[in-house]
Fold each of these.
Amino acid sequence: MGVFDFVREAGAKVGIGDSKEERQAKEAAASAEQAAAVAKKRAERKAKKETAARRERMAENKKARGLEKYIADLGLEIDGLDVRFDDGTAEVSGTVADQATRERVILALGNVEGVGTVDDEINVKADSEESEMHVVVSGDTLSKIARDAYGDASKYPVIFEANKPMLTDPDKIYIGQVLRIPALDNA
């Protein structure tokens, strides 16, 4: 009895095991399948990203149209109103009669949930002094804001009127809301 050595690749020639060429062919096929699977996953990820981007664009366009409707519903007159919305930024353009209307449009947009920035490209036909802006904090009332701005709490109706139609009740302001504080001679 003894141990005999043979050439391993010879086995396939008589139907036992795979030849070197057959193994290489199987490895190439497996590699091609793996490459196809990777390519398919990449294509699926790309399609998902494109679908998500398309949905985001559609949602942003819907938000922009909603903002335009909101401005119109408030009765703020702006010729050629165009609002674009992207990632929390509302870009607004058009032409208004005066500075007060421009500021009202900007504040109306900026005080909408989801809007963090207003990019203003509004043209004003009759320029005038810009109003101060005030961010409402805890404890603020229009009377307190008027006292701080004008030295007279009883001037709160000036602030209320300056922020119509966004404000409908002088007692209904909220933390984080931005209000116009016009100079008394420009109110």
Amino acid sequence: MSDARAIAKEAGDTGRASLPMAIERNRRTTRRRFLPKLLKVAGRIPFADDLAAAYYAALDPATPKKVRGVLLAALAYFVIPTDMLPDFIAGFGFSDDATVLATALGIVGGHIDERHRRAARRLLGKREPAVKPRGDQEAGAA
């Protein structure tokens, strides 16, 4: 039997109750643990901006529920101490976290907008990117 729903139904799980509970659990875990961990390790991971932007998108009520669920699952994976590669392993510890986040962003990244990215930059103390005036861009292309 290859259909995941059929397997879950055979096991007695309708799927309707467990998914929202899992999303709520991920939301609570993320809200409690995400910011302290991110701020602690932000200088050591190159994907801190994406993590923070995903966090703000996941907490944004305007973000669709399914998107929030995917983002919260990826963020919860980042904060859970028992993941595939422990974070303290030098050089490799965050590679599994980066992979999970990259996969989530590949699926729902279009829902992370400039407001979320701006909030992420503020959180991490990063400057806003310089915006070139239109005239300079056109002159450079000629």
Amino acid sequence: MAEQFKRKWPWMRILLITSLAVNLLFVGLIVGAALRFGGPDSMRAPPRSLGSALYRALPDDVRQEMRQHSRSGHGTRRRGGFKDVGVIVTALRAVPFDAEGLESVMDRQLAQRETFHRSIQDKWFDWITSMSDEGRATYADRLEEVSQRKTHKN
């Protein structure tokens, strides 16, 4: 009679445990992605910079417009930056070392980043100057709220 209750399928237990582990992994990935990349604004970490706070306080449609503007200038800036990697590597390996040549490459990179950031700032400023007094007050309230958000750990 004891033989009747003997486990005939030990692989079934292994399959169930494996299935549970995969399901838990999947749920963990989904929850982690939601916390990291999305979820309600109240779940997002506070901004780390003024630019980030200014951006997060924008309405969704304006943020989308700013992203499009950023992407249009970002491609040109990146292509120029990667082109300079070879120049920088060559300058670093040169004997004798050409500090002035390396500095000029880095200055050109800085000027490109500054031009890019200036275009983003100008776009933001154009939006702000086109707002009504009430709209600017609402944006200021939202900016204050975003900048005072506490982290989840506090």
Amino acid sequence: MKWAFSIQQKFKAAALLAIVCVIILITNLLGRQHIDTLGSAFSSVYEDRLVVESYIYKLSNHLYQKKLMLDNCAGQSDAQRSTHFGTHDTAISDLLVDYEKTRLTEEEVVCFRDFKANVAALQNLEHQYFRNAADGPQRAETRSQIEAQFATASSNLHQLSLIQLKEGKQLTDQSQRIVAGSSLLTSFEMAVLIAIAIILQVLVLASKPVVSRITQRSSLN
């Protein structure tokens, strides 16, 4: 019967070691998943928020430069105006293409679509404005519409910038939750390992008297 008790103790120890291995494997897999998610969050903060914010700044600057040129284009020839405005229009078009390649939220899609429509309307109004070289009510009305489109485009850019801040904060909060979860998982793993180590120690101590009694009886023979 003593050999059966010894085997039982060894079986318990082996079972506990197996549990340790399973726990380490599970926590390792969860840890890798957390790291991948955290890396994706940091990547999104840079590629989809910080870079986009730089696009918004550049778009705002090009629109501002166009507005300045529009206010000071009286002495310029058609070729000069076409060159200067064309440079900014091309830059804006390239930025819109780059912007659209990033990950857009549903709210951002709507606002970005409105901004592109404003830019297209603004360019059409600018061409119409320069075609009507003579000052008059029609040209003044076109200029008023241009100013309204500039204001609308600026408002849309501001809204897009606010979206970047909101999404960036959400990604930051997500990263903090991942870090907190990883810390909790590590603490749980350590607690389980300590508990199992204590149980193994108890099993080892419990098996010592059995070995001692077996040795004593053998010496009596």
